[in-house]
Amino acid sequence: MSATLSTRKPIDQLSVDDLTVFPIWEFAMDEEDIPGQDETWVRPVAAKAVPLDASSLSVAAEFRGPRQTFEGFLVLSTDSGWNEPHGAVLLHDGRYLPVSFGNKVARSRFAKLMDIEEDRIFPLQYVLRVRVDGEPSYRQGVLE
Fold it and tell me: Chain-wide mean pLDDT for the chain?
């Protein structure tokens, strides 16, 4: 079943297909009082670019390690200009894998969790699947 604007689901149930149909998702914080939903639920954003002045968006991205490519999303905020991503998730082999980056121990643990050698993952380059509003090209960077 394809995602629609009425789709709501826990963030750890987002799929590559969901991100293909709607590359931008937001937390449905104003819907936490709906039975069965909580603070982990997200909904699609009907936008063709990452909106400015938003917080904690989940934005589809492609991740490229030195020897392997992954699909997933970045968690980022634009409410005070562009901020570096504060989270990333790989959707790999049917698994939801939050990326640990920023220090050697976290990277090693993440590689072990994925059962892949660390040098096949890091440094992990990303390219957003949609542009940030007002920018001419797709935002990219590196998670180390």
Answer: 90
pLDDT digits (tens, 9 = 90+) for 101-122: 777 888 888 888 888 888 878 8
Higher confidence at residue 41 or residue 92? Answer: 41
Contacts of 8 (CB under 8 A, 6+ apart): 28, 31, 37, 41, 42, 43
Exposed/middle/buried for residue 121 (C-beta within 10 Å: 0-12, 13-18, 19+): buried
Question: Residues near 138 by Cβ (< 8 Å), separated by ≥ 6?
Answer: 127, 128, 129, 130, 131
- List the domain boundaries for the chain: 9-143
Sign for the CA dihedral angle at 35, 1, 138, 108 comes to positive
To which H or E segment does residue 112 belong?
A: helix 104-114
